[in-house]
Amino acid sequence: MPDIHHPGRRSVLAAATAGAASLGASWLLTGCTGASAAPALPMDAKGGSPDRGGTLRIARPPASDAETLDPASALSAYEYLGALYNRLVRVGANGDLVPDLAESWEPDAKARTWTFRIRAGVTFHDGRKLTSADAAYTLRHILAKETASPQAAVLAPLIDTKKLRTPDAHTLVVPLKTPNAEFPSLLTHYNCYVIPDGSARGIGRTGVGTGPFKLESFTPAGPGRITAYKDHWAGRPVLDAIDFYSVADMSARSNALLAGQVDLLSQTNLDFATARVVAASDRATIARVENAQWYVLPMLTTEKPFTDVRVRQAMKLAYDPEHVVKVALQGAGTAGWDNPVPPSDPAHITAHPKHDPEQARHLLKKAGHEGLTVDLYTSSYDPVFTPMALAYQDSAKRAGIRIRVKTASADSYYTQIWMKKPLMATYWYTGRPVDQLFTQVFRSGSSYNETAWSDKGFDALLDRARQETDDERRRELYGEAQTFVVEKGGAMTPMFADRLVGISRKVRGYAEHGFEFDYLGIGLKGA
Amino acid sequence: MFSFIARRAGAAVGTLFLSSVLVFLAVQALPGDVATQVLGKDATPDAVSALREKLKLDQPAWERYIDWIGGALHGDFGLSLVSGKAVGGEVGLYLGNSALIALVTVLFAVTGSIVLGILAGLYRDRWPDHLISTVSLIGMSVPEFVVATVLVLCFSVALPWFPAVVLYGPEASVGQLMPAVWLPALALAVVMAAYIVRMARTSVIDVMASEYVTTARLKGLSTWRVVTRHALPSALLPTLHVIALNVAWLAGGVAVVENVFNYPGIGKLMLASVQNRDLPVIQAIALISAVVYVVCNLAADLGAMALNPKLRTRGRTR
For strand A55-60 and strand A264-265, is the pairing parallel, antiparallel, or unpaired? Predict the structure, then answer.
């Protein structure tokens, strides 16, 4: 189970029932309320300010009984982590880095040593004061082997934990093994929340952090409750408390919302049929997180015929991403043009080759694969996978490519199909900084390199980019990296999709992007 | 009579042994290596082989089977691979919650559908029969998740009388679960009732056409008396097996309905365990389901014997 994919283990039944459920639902709601069969999905949730206080009820998919609140090793429970803890730096709404527990940070001239100024006057939920020792301890905890943190593989080649220094209570100095101008962006990962010094043993259960909420109860894969932390350094949150409930089945989750039992469905990208039903309800509506899902058709570059770069190029030129967005997303997203960096990222470049089936045909002929036939694997794991595959199949036909769409079982999709079959459908959450994205998913040998692509030139380009201290020049290099991936890489990125989030009509101040969720501002009106 | 009971009990034990072997083999055949599924895909080969050793996956299958069945006979189903808790206690918790639904379902579905079936049989080919038969046919044909979803939309969303889903965990008290029991029970009853209605109807028709009912009528007994004293016991006989099978299905196969209602029952536990490849839990649930099936069938046979004098004496006449 890859941590950064859709975190919820959706039940096997979900997809089977969701379709029928929403059919039944739309039929019934149409019958009951006389609403039109296919109301348009709202662009945004209701504005206006919330009332102070109240309890927000969130339904989330249960992960497993092995769930933990230790941020360094957590593979789920994101809702808890974001509310209980803070990181040194976080990602702002426009994709730039903004301060969280670190007020400021600066590199030395070569970007080899980074100095973080830790915010003063911050307390943990148990009353202890935050100091730089806690930040240093957190980094050591992430890198400790026994923690088994997914982020360790990214940070271990960079940080030598023995050389971490805390010259005073509010200064953290991190000397790196190799220069890296993008180092702070790696600390925005959800495994990098700051925990108190010496807390590793119990943190998975206690959840003591500096965040706007403190833990009252937590059951792995079960219900839990967090309450407002009045002494939070950025002011107290609007809400008094948040109740979390685990609901495995997606249609059960939306039923709970429709029946008014919960106010928000987290980690749930509603399918279009269900989203329409929710939007038509008196109690609930749809909020969108723009371009939140990054959809990919990875080609394993170690498997024939995708070992040949001409075939990969042909596969990309053969289809029209605009067509895929129209068919698979019903327009609720942006065409990706095979560039994995989302349009909202400051580093995103717009240049890309045009859709050209003739050129694709020509390339295939040169590679000796005229009339190519390949299997494309999908599953009901995500509602968009199969429509995306069918839209691709349809579009690629013009280049003479025959795609056989095969549906695999959802519950073993990420162990049996992902990174094993030469061509399949998958997705990630957007919202990771550009260096983290390229390092984790495209660099040679990275554990999440799902196309097994290995290009020394690309790796060298990344190294140059992260060592470049001039911001403008660095942005150019990341632009070159995008061109590199578009031209030679194994991943097709047909689109970025809006996430359709079901929320109660009482919810105000809902704001979410990437893995960031505004716990301070969210509240209820007239609850 | 005792030899009959002994024979049936012997067959039941044999069936259980066979099903335990099948359950074990089926679970071994699940796709996906257990150790990798439990450790996640980032696990090092060392960790995987260490876990395989710890789970005794490196031993031959028959040794593991003996180990498992030996423990199961003492009520020890091992520890969950995921939560590390004792499987027996965990399964018991969920099983108890499912039993609550099963109890309500049986009370309503069985009594209700027997009454409807008898009515249909007595009014054969008249409008009450047509109505009951048509409705039960529809109930039988519609999958339970559709029934469940329609019930939720009617009685939780449109009319907020019952909760749409259960928000409590498996430790919920009976009082907390009670409001949430009615809709799942109704959904299961609708699907289950159809079979019982049709079986009861057919039996009543058969019995009412039999010679002894004609004799009873000729003796001048009232229709009510003929039905309750003479026809019903015989009509219930073949229905018993259908009821038994349905009760067994209730106890073991309510996964779909429990998922729609997020009800913390055995079906939901089973689904989660299959997804997590939590082998000890899957095996325990499968074995318990087999026990429930066998016991229900045994009970139906013995019940049939109690109702039918002919069966009671068969052992001797042979």
Answer: parallel
